[in-house]
Write a structure and sequence with these properties.
single chain, about 280 residues, alpha/beta, Rossmann fold, L-fucose Isomerase, Chain A, domain 2, 2 domains, five-stranded parallel beta sheet, four-stranded parallel beta sheet, elongated
Length: about 280
Amino acid sequence: MSIGLYSLLSPVHDADRVGQNTKKFLEDIESLIGENFEECSMDEVDNFPLTLIFIASGGVEGFFKENYKRLKEPYFLLTNGENNSFAASLEILTFLKQQGLNGEILHGNTEYIANRIKNINKIMIAKEKLNGINIGVIGKPSDWLISSDVDYEKLKEIYGINTVQIGIDELLEEIDNVKIENLDKLNENSKIIDLYKKSFSNESLRGALKIYLALKNIVSRYALKGLTIRCFDLLNTVHNTGCIALSLLNDEGIISSCEGDVPALISMLILNALSGEPV
């Protein structure tokens, strides 16, 4: 995926000369990160998970101040130090900090800049993966999670994650509706075959697998990418646990945590988005 490059150059500089001076600098970074820069206009910066603001010269500070609200935070200011660009970047970053905004100057040798861009790009792609997903909170968080409150509106604002509140009664009804023939179909799953071989009680395992199928129905109903469940409520209702169900769901890419622990679920989602692996 290309990385956006929005360039700022003062009109007092010769654009062709500056372009020739910066061509190798940009090409060397592209080669090291294994991604291409795509020049974009201010109206196109949101088309990329990561857009760098290339400060190609000094004298662009006033233009940046007039237009910075049209660019997205955090602001990554790329500079090669030529044509007074580093001094301009320092002035711009100081201005951003005065506005309470996040920014960073990408400056140094090409190896350092490339490595930093690779890491930032990975983070921005992960954030893009999380934007717009639904997570389910099945039952409220367990009573002992006294420091784990989450502001769901803030979660939506920062990460774009939508929270779906689901009553534990809805899960219990789903569990009750799971038919035996649906359990029989799971015997084709090699992981579940292995579970039966190791199980101390096939009856208990079937009960755990009913929870698994019930959760899959809820995942499908609400288009969930992740979920957390107040799992101890299952002990005195269906006399089983959600452990096997959550393990199987995590293997399938439905990131799942127990005890209604939303902060743990968010951490797991972020790690999954960064690594592409089960967490």
